[in-house]
Write a structure and sequence with these properties.
The protein is an alpha/beta fold. It has one domain: Aminopeptidase (3-Layer(aba) Sandwich), CATH 3.40.630. Helices cover 31% and strands 24% of the residues.
Length: 190
């Protein structure tokens, strides 16, 4: 009697494809929340500024309020763009498939900062995590939040088995490349 034919087995998805296919809840659980293999993590849904003692909330989303994010970029960084500033172009970039945003809100639920990151390839099959944008209002600076956001990016890169963290936002340069060398990642600023 002939053996029944098995359906073809699809090739396994790689770590980056799996990361990008996850819902925000699953992404948070897989890459940022504590697990048995990663009992400590830099993720918490709150941040209290050490000087002002103001509490802020952090949320992860792939559907951010783009107009509010764009307004924050204009407020914090428009001068750096100079004549190259183009809100339509920036909005297109902010809609890049796979981008995840960590939004920071103050007690009045006003957007006061955000980070955007993207697990991807450079070139395939080299897995990388791009840090696209980091924008914080002045009242959030100097309290360690920027460093904590970069630790979140390192955590995602490590759990997604990326070997490179590419800082497109140039935060590393601004912070003196104050990242965790024990993470075993290649840090690159563009």
């Amino acid at each position: 009697m002939p053996r029944p034919k098995r359906p073809p087995v699809p090739p396994p998805k790689d770590d980056i494809a799996l990361a990008n296919a996850k819902s925000d809840t699953d992404f948070l659980a897989s890459y940022l929340l504590p697990t048995p293999s990663h009992p400590t993590t830099p993720w918490t849904p709150t941040f209290t500024h050490p000087t002002t003692h103001t509490p802020y909330t952090l949320t992860l989303t792939s559907s951010p309020p783009l107009p509010a994010c764009l307004a924050l970029i204009a407020l914090t960084s428009r001068a750096h763009y100079g004549p190259l500033w183009s809100p339509p172009k920036k909005l297109r970039e902010m809609r890049t498939p796979g981008l995840r945003y960590v939004l920071i809100h103050d007690p009045e639920n006003r957007l006061v900062g955000f980070l955007s990151l993207l697990p991807t390839y450079e070139p395939y099959p080299t897995a990388v995590v791009y840090v696209y944008e980091v924008h914080l209002l002045p009242e959030l600076r100097g309290g360690g939040l920027g460093k904590r956001l970069m630790r979140l990016c390192e955590e995602v890169a490590g759990r997604a088995r990326s070997r490179k963290l590419v800082d497109l936002a140039e935060l590393l340069r601004l912070q003196g490349r104050a990242l965790n060398p024990a993470a075993g990642l290649i840090h690159q600023v563009r």
